[in-house]
Amino acid sequence: MCVLARDYNPQDIELKWQEFWAANDVCHSDIDETKEKKYVLEMFPYPSGSPHMGHVRNYTIGDVVARLARMRGYNVIHPMGWDAFGLPAENAAIQKGSHPAAWTYHNIDVQEESFKRMGFSFDWKRKVVTCDPEYYHWGQWLFVKMFERGLVERRKSPVNWCPSCETVLANEQVEGDGVCWRCSSRVEKRDLSQWYFKITDYAQELLDDLDQLSAWPERVKAMQANWIGRSTGANVTFTICDADDQPTEETITVYTTRPDTLFGASFFLLAPEHPLVEEFTANTPYEAACKAVIAECERETAVERESGIAEKIGAFTGRYVVNPINNQKIPVWIANYVLMDYGTGAVMAVPSGDERDFEFARIYDLNIPPVVIAEDDPLMDALRHEKELKHTNVDWQQAYTGPGLMVQSGDFTGLVGGKDSEGARAVIEALAAKDKGEATINFRLRDWLISRQRYWGNPIPMVHCESCGLVPVPEDQLPVILPLDIDIAAGETLHNTASFYETTCPSCGKPARRETDTMDTFTCSSWYFLRYADPHNDQLPFSSQAANYWMPVDNYIGGIEHAILHLLYARFFIKVLRDMGMLNFDEPFVHLLTQGMVKLDGTKMSKSKGNVISPDEVVARYGADTVRGYIMFMGPPDKDIDWSQDGVEGMFRFLNRVWRLVGEYLDIRALNKTAECVQTSSAAADLAPAEVDLRHQTHRLIKKASDDLERQQFNTAIAALMELTNALYDFKRTADWATSEIADHAIQSLLKMLAPIVPHIAEELWADLRDGGAADLADSVHLQSWPSYDPEFVTADTIELPIQINGKIRARVSVAADASEEEVADAAKQASASYIEGKEIKKLIVVPGRIITIVI
């Protein structure tokens, strides 16, 4: 057929091939123990409406990786689903007078249609939607199993409360200077009984196993390590004094990473919420001041208090504690930067060694005795003269937190101080001998708060019974169905819907109340990748056989914003399921790619800013292949990129060039009656120079594109394909390409390498190349083997070098690639004879493979 007679019309060919792929299950795969598997997964989307360019970039990256893996012979799984529970659906339903389920499923339909129009090779038979009972059933099952293993706990504690969302937030969901990660409202602290997953039981393993993740960005691993926050130090026990300042039998323990500074503890701090505060101050002259601080703290967020953003405020409680290392009494204060949910809610304050304590001491005129000093500190000179320091205060401008020499520290004076130093170890030994302390390890990580006081989520499968206490819902009664007849716009919730919460105790049969909190949506996204492996299993969340074959995910792709929340929780789930005997691996994701954002004029796209580029509109004008190709060509996948209309049109022109190139080749080949596809004969001794060069360019660029794609440097791989296209255009102008085996091989290789990136045009042109356009599954370009290269042909037989004479390029010369410098010099003299004849050559320099410089 005459391809050249047809214009490139992406709408026609893209829809045709999408229907063909769907009808022939091209993207579906089953377990095949004879083949090496490849699990490619992009983080599944929230169904918030039409996809944006961030979605397109994310899923195009994954699709290229998946299609490439299929052509390389892997048994590929590339599924898709939706993270469908959550607050946005609930809020949207209230605003629109709709129901979260209706809003959610409508948006899923819109997004699924858009994804199909982009040509993403998802296996739709594995589709998972987290708000389907078939999915959340098993989320509840996992909750019960974790409860049985002691990994679920309900307790009352201060929690982060978003007044706008009217729900609690995990620590990880409070961002910046103390705002909600979803709505940016100021977060408050409230005391509530909540459900927790005991992720802290796995803190050490979560930290240690980061070393296994060699294919994760170092930035992400560092963020997780910092969030887990392992530190070594000591628990130190202080004795509480009574109202008459006399030591009692009561004690309070604090954790410190710097036991070497214990002699510098000049005051003691309690969190304003600490129960001892009321005990110490009730009906005393100190009560009013402490209550004022407490009231002020209620207006500050936990992030503000812990980070030191808020101005430091405090009050004296009127009480003292005894420092166990020197038996000195020090005053007990409350301070807003001490949090009740960190450690014991109490800290020993060493103002000379901690910046926050230093600032607090300056504000309230408290002593700042130096105990660890740097080598260049002026006090070192005083120490040399006085032999012993007796300073109760320093005139420093800030605390010194580094290592140094211990001073004013009794028997420990002169030892080296610092974290895990000889001085620290010596102090710990002394405390242990007095039964007043011990070495310990602490973690910043807190248990995962999963309770949410909202409707649109997975119900927590627990029952409150006055006789039996907390009782899990039996497995044969799961799932606890989320009722769909609740009108949240009218103020109905699970908490006030008797038909939901009224139940009987599974243990004793008496009337009981069903738990009305729902689970944090991150519980849904912490194991969805396992359900993809066995999506229709109605007996278990997944079979071990399926999960252990497909998992772990080989390529996981998503935004850097999930570096802590989702990725940490998913790692925790995997370790729990492994310990339950359901999995035989430790980590869920082998290779992690955190893609950058798509911006417009340097600004993040946002509906509120009115600067959103609609993928559907661009596809309607230029076709999905143009959008895919352009978004992969814009820059490295982990970098932010700026959308350019000129760039889109440039990619469209490139695809038209490929279309015309193959069309012209097919037309002239038909005229020469060489319709049968030919095989490459790389050993031909009589190849024309143009064929030798094209053969070299083809093999060189196959290697480059293959290597770049393997390294996920998609933009430079596309540049290589553009270069091969140019080489073919150059060849057809200088040689008879209709009968050239080299040209045929180059065109076939070009289409195969384009296939993962621009799958529709590659499929169309491949079909024309192979059999005149007939749709034959066996001949699909996506089922072909990835092109290989011959190392012998990657290096050119000859190379062309520029000749620079007195600073200007005057000539060029072709020489053998392995020519010696002497041979290159002789060839350069001959090629530039007209410039150097009769002149004295003062200098001739050969830069191998690059340039020849002659000075005359």
Structure description:
This protein is of the alpha+beta class. Helix 19 packs across helix 20. The two termini are 60 Å apart. The model is unreliable at 674-684 (pLDDT under 50).
Short description:
By secondary structure, the protein is α+β, with helices and mostly antiparallel strands.
Secondary structure layout:
Blueprint: H1 10-23, E1 37-42, H2 53-71, E2 75-77, E3 81-82, H3 87-96, H4 100-117, E4 128-129, H5 133-148, E5 152-162, E6 167-169, E7 174-175, E8 179-180, E9 188-197, H6 203-208, H7 218-228, E10 230-241, E11 247-256, E12 267-270, H8 275-281, H9 287-298, H10 302-307, E13 314-322, E14 329-335, E15 346-349, H11 355-364, E16 372-373, H12 378-386, E17 404-406, E18 416-417, H13 422-433, E19 437-443, E20 448-449, E21 451-452, E22 462-465, E23 469-472, H14 498-501, E24 502-504, E25 511-514, E26 518-519, H15 528-531, H16 544-550, E27 553-559, H17 565-579, E28 589-595, E29 598-600, E30 603-604, H18 615-622, H19 624-633, E31 641-642, H20 645-671, H21 689-710, H22 714-734, H23 741-754, H24 759-771, H25 791-794, E32 798-805, E33 808-816, H26 821-831, H27 833-836, E34 843-847, E35 851-855
Parallel strand pairs: 1-2, 1-27, 3-4, 12-14, 27-28, 29-31, 32-35
Antiparallel strand pairs: 5-6, 5-9, 7-8, 9-20, 10-11, 10-13, 10-19, 12-15, 13-14, 16-17, 17-18, 21-26, 22-23, 22-25, 24-25, 29-30, 32-33, 34-35
